[in-house]
Amino acid sequence: MNFSRFKTNFNHAKNTCKSYKDVINKLLWLYSNSLSLTKNYFINFSYPIPLGDFSLNLRVNNGSDHFIFSEVFDQQCYQLPLKPKSVHYIIDLGANIGLSTIYFSKIYPNAQIAFVEPIPENFLLTQKNLKANNITAHGYRNAISIYNDSIKMTLGDNDYGHKVSNIPFGKELQTINEVTVQGITINEIIKQLKFPKIDLIKIDIEGYEGILLSEQLEWLNITHAIMMEIHQHVDIKQIENTLFRYGFNYTEKIKGNYFYSKNLND
Predict the structure, then answer these.
(1) Contact (CB, 8 A) for 191 and 174
(2) DSSP structure class, residue 202
(3) % of the chain surpassing 70 pLDDT
(4) Which pTM does this prediction carry?
(5) 122-136: per-residue pLDDT in tens?
(6) Which phi and psi angles does 153 have, rounded to 5°?
(7) Can you state the angle between helices 3-16 and 20-30, rounded to 10 degrees?
(8) Which of 117, 33, 134, 70 minimizes the C-alpha distance to 125?
(9) Which of 28, 192, 206, 218 is the most buried (most CB within 10 A)?
(10) Contacts of residue 131, Cβ cutoff 8 Å, sequence gap at least 6
(11) 105 with 113: CB under 8 angstroms?
(12) Are 107 and 84 in contact (CB under 8 A)?
């Protein structure tokens, strides 16, 4: 064990967990692989405002949940140049276990949030985590798609990184595990929820963004900001040209993701 690293992790846990029991659970969760632990953990966190207190059900899964947790809450990869009081409608594409959804609910307390997550275990854990934090959000156990039809997905080796099968974008997965899920379009979500606009949409869909932003684009007319991870083989210039045609006039790379906005200073 690297004791210098352990000291850093201990001090960080002490500063961001609610009690010493939570500190211990955070460290056990963090070192679960090297300790051959298999149980999952419920941990209470306490971060500086605006995040504040929140609680999470987290899995021992070869560091998959910890990787996403670190991105969302420690690195704050979704810290955006938006005025919190102006954000009222959010769609979270690729919610995984709900960490980004919880983050958005803390940063944008006035927002109605919809999330999309196609993997059943992840979806159920998202619901569990939202309930633990008294957060209301409308969930879709679907894969985002350009058609309201069934779609095949290839499952990655980790509990993230699952992608739509047979698309020319994104990382190649060394697995033959496939599942069939129901696809849903952004236009359909807007129609069902009667969202008059989308103030923010997060897109982390493992390469499918290259297809999502190629057709059925009516939703871009009412979308004001996009935070997107752009994966391998996706033509960034082509995506940006599409967004510019729909009135997006501000772009910024934020901690590895791409942020696009209309009239940022309004």
Answers:
(1) no
(2) E
(3) 94
(4) 0.94
(5) 999 999 999 999 999
(6) -125, 145
(7) 140
(8) 117
(9) 206
(10) none
(11) yes
(12) yes
| Torsion sign (Cα): 118, 105, 28, 9 | positive
Q: Which residue has the tokens 């690293």?
A: 5
Evaluate whether 123 touches 159 at the Cβ level (below 8 Å).
Answer: no
Q: Are the CB atoms for 200 and 224 separated by under 8 Å?
A: yes
Question: 8: exposed, middle or buried (C-beta count within 10 Å: 0-12, 13-18, 19+)?
Answer: exposed
Show the tokens assigned to 18. Answer: 């609610």
Q: At 123, list the tokens.
A: 């979806």
Give the C-alpha separation, 178 to 181, whole Å: 10
Collapsing DSSP states into helix, strand and coil, what is residue 90?
Answer: strand
Pairing state between β 163-164 and 150-154: antiparallel
Residue 113 and residue 60: Cα distance in Å, rounded? 27
Identify the H or E element spanning 105: helix 99-107
pLDDT tens digits, one per residue of 179-237? 899 999 999 999 999 999 999 999 999 888 999 999 999 999 999 999 999 988 889 99
Write the single-letter amino acid at 168. P
The first and second tokens of residue 56, run together, are 């999470």
Q: Please, which residues have CB within 8 angstroms of residue 61's CB and are 6 or more apart in sequence? A: 158, 159
Neighbours of 157 (CB within 10 A): 12
